[in-house]
Amino acid sequence: MDVITVKDLSVSFEGQPVFEDLSFKLKEGSTTSLIGQNGVGKTTLIRVLMQMLQPTTGNVTYSKKENGEPIKVGYVPQFRNIDKDYPLSVKNFIQLNAGLFKSKAYKQSVNHIIQETNLTSIQNSSMGELSGGEKQRAYLAQALIDNPDFIILDESTASLDPTAKLSLMSLVKQLNETRKITVLFATHDIELAKEFTEDYIFMQPGSYETGKIKNFDESRVGR
Ligand SMILES: Nc1ncnc2c1ncn2[C@@H]1O[C@H](COP(=O)(O)OP(=O)(O)OP(=O)(O)O)[C@@H](O)[C@H]1O
């Protein structure tokens, strides 16, 4: 099953095209890297996929699940630092959007996600005191709360050290394998993309291509 179908998508700002006639499909359980030089339109595409930005032309269709419900999308942002005095613990941060009503089942699912993302021992620490990699794992945990079918990582590993990058992406791969979550990973790190994803979408000014990432020649990507 295709989770998402993108057809003839174009976005322009004030008449200036960012990208034009982009078409691709993402299969359920697939892992795809979104690559391309700075400014080529990766974040703009992600904003359209997240339905935060209306495309100029074309459309994005999300499939329905077997139970008729729409596909749920989770989002893990680019790393940005959180102040040392940020007033939430890791656990409270993860359940930030849950409102006040927390059923027993909900609490169990929060605890399960905390375990899955290896945050158990620091769940009561203040968010502001975590390392960059730990903060990104907390963002990932937050994205998992709604039980997404599809997660988008927008350069989520940028500025993490090599160990933290591997740890975050190993977790993502594990979630892909155990929960069949479809993954779209925007990145400049082709080595990481090759290690943790199967497919790619390579955006270039005025064109794009798709394929198997193992065949992608990384010297083609400038920064
Ligand atoms: N709201 C907006 N209004 C006008 N121009 C915009 C807007 N959002 C993005 N752009 C422009 O669209 C182009 C693509 O930006 P985008 O952030 O999507 O690129 P990117 O591939 O994600 O880059 P990076 O790798 O640096 O994150 C840039 O030239 C940017 O200045």
Automatic annotation (TrEMBL):
The keyword ATP-binding applies. Keywords: ATP-binding, Nucleotide-binding, Transport. Gene3D superfamilies: P-loop containing nucleotide triphosphate hydrolases (3.40.50.300). The keyword Cell inner membrane does not apply. Belongs to the ABC transporter superfamily. Pfam families: ABC_tran. GO terms for molecular function: ATP binding. It comes from Holzapfeliella saturejae. This is ATP-binding cassette domain-containing protein. It comes from the Bacteria. Residues 4-221 form the ABC transporter domain. PROSITE patterns: ABC_TRANSPORTER_2 (PS50893).
